[in-house]
Amino acid sequence: MLVLLPPSETKRDGGSGGPLRVAAFAYPALTDQRSTLVRALVALAHDTDASVAALKLGRTQLAEIDRNRVLASSPTMPAIDRYTGVLYDALDAESLDAADREFAGRHVLVHSALFGPIGALDLVPAYRFSHDSRLPALALKKHWSASVAAALAETSGLVLDLRSEAYVALGPVPKRTGSFFLRVVTEAADGQKRALNHFNKKSKGEFTRALLKSRRNFETVDELLSWAPTAGFQLQPGAPGELELVVEQIVAAKRA
């Protein structure tokens, strides 16, 4: 089983790991592309105005440019600890025990716009770069899509794609048996379902945490669907190649 998570714009400062080593990340075939983006982002950071435009920053966010300027030499920490925000707050990786984290290292990827898909325990610095960031003469979708899709095609078994559609565009999982895109939906009293946007992140974080705490390497979607209610989740088949994580309407309203 492999779980694909989106990254987050917000990231924790600091870290106790050594400088960035992109060659040590999962999928080493992507090393050259990672290095190209790192060099381009560091170079961009020496032009404040260009960085503000490329990264869509407000004038109160100039510290993000400082992060990028030193990202090749700044301290690192595991990816699931570096990212913050709604999904990662619900995942609460720092509170997982050693066995849970080791399981995450083998079964969870975070798809970074800067680094591509990386292992949950791969060591990353603080940086600012998103799916809609723009680098001079470099289109992210063209840079990543085919090579990331090829890397993910090497994966066998059950794949759960929890990324946003914007990150899916940077490297889709090849359509095959055993690969599923997860949608978080709420069901109204009349039975109609609607997708949740911002508030789906908390549900995805809670679901991922439960998977890690279970430490079960599900081989088929049927095994996953059987387990879900025992962990308190309503998970069901959706459109072809999709699963729906159903959140009760009252719960979704409280989160709003």
UniProtKB/TrEMBL annotation:
Superkingdom field:
Bacteria
InterPro entries assigned: YaaA
Which PANTHER family does the entry mention?
PEROXIDE STRESS RESISTANCE PROTEIN YAAA (PTHR30283:SF4), PEROXIDE STRESS RESPONSE PROTEIN YAAA (PTHR30283)
Supply the name of the protein. Answer: Peroxide stress protein YaaA
Which species is this UniProt entry from?
A: Leifsonia kafniensis
